[in-house]
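TA notes, week 10

Several of you asked for a full example with nothing omitted. So below is the full record: structure tokens for the whole chain, then the designed sequence directly under it. When grading your own attempts, check the secondary structure regions first.
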């Protein structure tokens, strides 16, 4: 089995140089809309990488504890915290267990553009539900599982002059190499169907409240959703 963590350690410097090297934080209006008002809330940033989402959450008023499995990425996150303190605590841990986080101790949690890169979905979501307070919220953003499954590409409709997304192998769940993945990232993702994501969230006690599929600037983003966002609430049975 591929050691994904070591791959992220190997690419940590290139990732940091490309993704928020100055530490300004994430810019994403769809994400902001789903997380809502954060002042006074304790929020866990799961699979935080070098801290782009964690810094943004802190700037929005949250008290943030961030977790990632890559020490290489965390080194950059902690250095930026020293240079521009926001009160973020960075912990080394596996998103599939979150054993570095206490049960029922967070008002909310986020996992920004990472769930599709984590090998095991079910233990990850159960761990998220475990660390949330009753009624706590969870927001995740992923590449869209319907329009970016293992076999995909872009096709231009020369008649209309518009872009189309060609998809395939949608029902083949599991790891795959992506032809369109950023070169700074390890070339392995884990495809799941939309129903697998939703059903696993619900089975973990995370009931879907809202979903969003933002329209982007490039032609293909205006024709087919490229990202999927979801906001959930922890519901105890």
């Amino acid at each position: 089995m591929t050691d994904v963590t070591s791959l992220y350690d190997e690419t940590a410097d290139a990732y940091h140089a490309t993704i928020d090297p100055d530490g300004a934080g994430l810019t994403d209006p769809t994400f902001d809309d789903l997380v809502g008002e954060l002042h006074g809330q304790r929020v866990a940033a799961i699979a935080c990488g070098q801290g782009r989402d964690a810094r943004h959450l802190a700037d929005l008023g949250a008290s943030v504890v961030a977790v990632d499995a890559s020490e290489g990425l965390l080194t950059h996150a902690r250095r930026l915290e020293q240079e521009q303190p926001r009160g973020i605590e960075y912990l080394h841990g596996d998103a599939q267990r979150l054993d570095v986080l206490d049960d029922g101790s967070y008002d909310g949690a986020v996992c920004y553009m990472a769930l599709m890169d984590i090998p095991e979905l079910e233990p990850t979501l159960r761990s998220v539900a475990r660390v949330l307070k009753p009624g706590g919220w969870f927001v995740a953003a992923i590449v869209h599982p319907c329009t970016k499954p293992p076999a995909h590409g872009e096709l231009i409709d020369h008649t209309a002059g518009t872009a189309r997304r060609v998809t395939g192998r949608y029902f083949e769940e599991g790891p795959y190499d992506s032809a369109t993945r950023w070169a700074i990232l390890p070339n392995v993702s884990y495809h799941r169907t939309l129903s697998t994501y939703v059903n696993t969230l619900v089975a973990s006690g995370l009931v879907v409240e809202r979903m969003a599929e933002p329209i982007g600037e490039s032609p293909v983003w205006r024709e087919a959703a490229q990202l999927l966002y979801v906001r959930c609430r922890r519901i105890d049975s």
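The chain has a mean pLDDT of 89. Use that as a sanity check on your answer.
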